[in-house]
Amino acid sequence: MLRTYLIILLLPIVLTASTKIESSLLQKYSQGVHQADVIITLTEKTSEILQKVADNSLATKVQKRTALYQELGAFTSISQAPLLSFLSTKLPKESIRSFWITNKIAISGATLNLLQEIDVNIENVLEIRESKKFLIPETSFAEDEKLHLISEEWDEETLNETEIAWGVKQIGALDAWEMGYKGQGIIVSTIDSGVRYNHEALVDNYREDYGWFDPYYGSELPNDYNGHGSHTMGSICGTHGIGVAPDSKWIACIGCTTITCAEDALLACGQWTLCPTLWDGTEPDCSKAPDISSNSWAGGQGDPIFNDVIDAWQVGGIVPVFGIGNSGPFCTTANSPGDQPNVISVGATTINDTVAIFSSHGPAAEDINRVKPEISAPGVNIRSASNLGVSAYAIKSGTSMSCPHVAGAIAVLLSKNPELTFGEIEEALYGYTLQPFIEETPCGNVTDFWPNNSFGWGRVDLYRSLSEGV
Fold first, then answer.
1. Which DSSP category does 318 fall into?
2. How far apart are CA 47 and CA 387, in angstroms?
């Protein structure tokens, strides 16, 4: 009897140890939380589908994007069918969001009892964890605390003095424009807090056709309750002197609300970027995908949760650009997804071409040989569009501001040669940077000063990249 009793006593411990529910989530429930927003990852991976589509060298970008949508959709629908069937009997439809760009399902308001049932009954579940929150990076930099609104109240003389933003000038955009390249024919996209689409610097180059998606509230027209997204989009393609590529067209997905970005919304925006739908999520058309996706959000380190999206973008010919984060000035502070491979990550520089004090430094926490960021751009006291009025402007600082300078620079390069591959874009950007004098030994495991884990390959020089690199 004693032997039998011991076996029964140990059984609950074995079950707890083998659960697929993340321990931190279990702890949260044990502390009295009744419901949580969760992400369920299934065992079947999308990598084979991506490789299959990538290997078709004869396919155009649009054909590859369409093939990804169709084949990933078929693959994930089969994999997710048992779990979705189970959930349909337990939850209202609006509490469940499934994805095809990555083999994950998001559930809002999940109870512990429900997750335990999934753990026991659905065989191909790999992991159940709480949905993550990423951040629109904020800085505590002294100059950034002096944010102020520039509006119609400014007199005409002052407005003329600041007509061309200093960062646009600094990277050589004016010389690129003189050559005839201003981003024409290129579509840029952001995943951010939205965009005030009727702003005077943005209204004329908004592409209304398949141009907006809001996974939070399903709004029909672009909007921006935070102001961050209007500012970043303005630096990419705004007119009135604030954008690097003012002749490009923009589209946007609202991945962030106030200062946080919910994981399920970011994933929804990620797959919308690869194959846009109408504002209500219907009638997907992969031919409407952008050429570039600019992302000024970040969180944590060494986090691969967006890598499936990034890898799919790469196969579909969409250039992924990410701010490296505002966790500086110390080494190994690069934030995700910018610290991941397969992206162009951007650090921030000042008007004097020094690294901004807030800008995150590499190397990547998970790999000391991975230099981060790859490149840097102006990110301190950047003037761009504000959401507070149709002719209002604001000055902000952060790698959120440097990232769109590089996205805009890529749009200009592509307007000269739309067929550039990701590798060719990297060569054109990294091979022709301004490399300021560095006194201190760079962070991390680098054998030479360039590239380094502060500037990357240097500060972007669009004119040289365009005239010598493309």
1. P
2. 39
Q: What is the CATH number of domain 142-469?
A: 3.40.50.200
Return d(Cα 37, Cα 131) in angstroms, integer. Answer: 6
Closest Cα to residue 115, out of 92, 133, 90, 97?
Answer: 90
CA–CA–CA angle 69, 75, 78 (5° rounding): 130
Tokens 């609104």 found at: 149
Question: In what helix (H) or strand (E) does residue 394 lie, and over which residues does it extend?
Answer: strand 393-396
Q: Give the closest residue to 191 by CA, choosing from 311, 248, 276, 107.
A: 276
* Cα 348 to chain centroid, rounded: 16
Any idea where the domains of the chain sit in the sequence? Answer: 16-131, 142-469
Q: What confidence score (pLDDT) does residue 445 get? A: 77
Is the Cβ–Cβ distance between 104 and 41 less than 8 Å? yes
CB 311 within 8 A of CB 47: yes
Q: Which residues of 105-138 are buried (b: 16+ CB within 10 A; e: fewer)?
A: bbbbebbbebbbebbeebeebeebbbbbebbbbe
319-323 and 344-349 beta bridge pairing: parallel
Cα(174)–Cα(180) distance, integer angstroms: 10
> DSSP class of residue 89?
T
Sign of the alpha-carbon dihedral angle for 383, 385, 388, 392: positive
| CA 431 and chain centroid, separation | 24
CB 183 within 8 A of CB 408: yes
pLDDT means per 10 residues, the chain with 470 residues, are 35 51 96 96 98 94 98 98 97 97 98 97 97 77 37 36 85 98 98 97 98 97 95 98 98 93 97 98 98 96 97 98 96 97 97 95 95 97 96 96 98 98 98 87 80 96 96
HEC states along 12-33?
A: HHHHHHHCCECHHHHHHHHCCC
Retrieve residue 83's tokens. Answer: 């779990």
Q: Please give the structure tokens belonging to residue 402.
A: 């440097």
Give the separation between CA 33 and CA 25, rounded to whole angstroms: 10
> Any bridge partners for residue 189, and if so which?
251, 293
Q: Position 64: which residue type?
A: K
Q: Describe the crossing of helices 47-54 and 307-315 by its angle, rounded to 10 degrees.
A: 10
Token pair 């309750």 is found at 225
What are the structure tokens assigned to 459, written together?
A: 């500060």
Angle formed at CA 231 by CA 334 and CA 298, multiple of 5 degrees: 20
